[in-house]
Amino acid sequence: MLGVSKSGYYAWLAAPESRRAVENRELLQQIMQIHEESDRRYGSPKILDRLKKRGYMCGHNRLARIMRENGIKSKVVKKIRPRGKVIDKNHAAPNTLDRRFQWDTLNQAWATDITYIPTKNGWVYLCVFLDLCSRAIVGWSVAEHMRTELVMDALRRAYASRRPGKGLLIHSDQGSQFGSDDFYDYLREYEFEQSMSRRGNCWDNACVESFFRLLKVEELNDYCFNNVEEVRFKVFGYIEYFYNRQRIHSRLGYMSPLEFEKNYVLNPLSKKKGKVQITKFLPPLTSSIIHHPFVSSVSSVVDQWQSRPVPCYNSPLRGSGGC
Question: Which tens digit of pLDDT belongs to each residue from 217-271?
Fold first, then answer.
């Protein structure tokens, strides 16, 4: 029936497992461990880097095949994109950033935007400020509204944590909050420069859009929130505990933003066109931690986060019939 001899069949049964199969089984165990340690956030490129640092040699195609055969993949994106108000095009600031997303100096260019997060009680809004050199979130705020106060709260926290000098470039879309008098006056007071994306062009602010995608894919999409406090708790944990301190970025040489900044300040990076020179030691990455009610000091952020009682999510995961 199988077209093979009886002796050949039993010889195949008795044959020892191949070295390749043994290696694949060991790789699978490591892949599953790394995948779970990242809470199913990492895909094949980052898992490959973690494997190499653990001493396992494996090609990307082989790794991708093992993951595919065993149903291991990063969390899947779910997009929900409401639309907000925009300012008059005649009042928009020029697109000074012009998609220059790589900067060699910290606190020279920040990008900002607002995203929408659904809860059972309605929309919740998150505003972040991202340093384009280290990709760190230097300030953020969550509220049940998207008025100018939301943006100003995040901006004040970012300024308090970083104390940037004059000439800082702050890039945003043409949302009404970023064209408000309060926002403009604050930038003028500290002599910051304003830049705005072209109308309806999300690619001009791709770095912040990319962060929002990560936040939702890796954290928020798994939950159906009841209120703003639950959202704030999850956002705080992702940004301050995981993203800024632990999440590795391929652009940063597979370092986290905080790890990159420490190396950036203490060990200037070699560049093809010379070396990055840092003469002033920057304050530690604090983002909005100092002003956040969940913690009282920067040094104890991890300990306090781990010991913080987790809110009770009465709602099921989205994938099981939730919101």
Answer: 999 988 889 999 999 999 999 999 999 999 999 888 899 999 998 887 555 444 4
Contact 230, 311 (CB under 8 A): yes
Number of neighbours of residue 127 by Cβ within 10 angstroms: 27
Q: Which CATH number fits domain 89-320: 3.40.1360.10, 3.40.50.2300, 3.30.420.10, 3.20.20.60?
A: 3.30.420.10
Burial 215-228 (b: 16+ CB within 10 A, else e): bbbbbbbbbbbbeb
CB 279 within 8 A of CB 286: no
Q: What is the DSSP string of 211-275?
A: HHHHHHHHTGGG--BSSHHHHHHHHHIIIIIIITTT--BGGGTSB-HHHHHHHHHHSPPEETTEE
Give the rounded distance of the alpha carbon of 200 from its chain centre.
Answer: 23
Q: Which positions of the chain have pLDDT values less than 70?
A: 1-3, 8-14, 16, 76-90, 265-323
Tokens of 55: 């001493």
Name the token pair of 128.
């972040």
Q: Where are the domains of the chain?
A: 7-69, 89-320
Q: In terms of DSSP H, where are the helices of the chain?
A: 6-14, 19-37, 44-53, 60-69, 148-162, 181-189, 206-218, 228-236, 257-266, 301-307
Integer Cα distance of 203 and 200 in angstroms = 9
Rg of the chain over all Cα atoms, to the nearest angstrom: 23
Q: What's the number of CA atoms in the CB half-sphere (13 Å) around residue 20?
A: 3
**Cα distance between the two ends of the chain:** 53
- For the four alpha carbons of 313, 35, 46 and 203, in that order, the dihedral sign comes to negative
Q: What pTM was estimated for this model as a whole?
A: 0.64
User: In whole angstroms, what is the distance from residue 8 CA to residue 40 CA?
Assistant: 43
Q: How far apart are CA 287 and CA 305, in angstroms?
A: 15
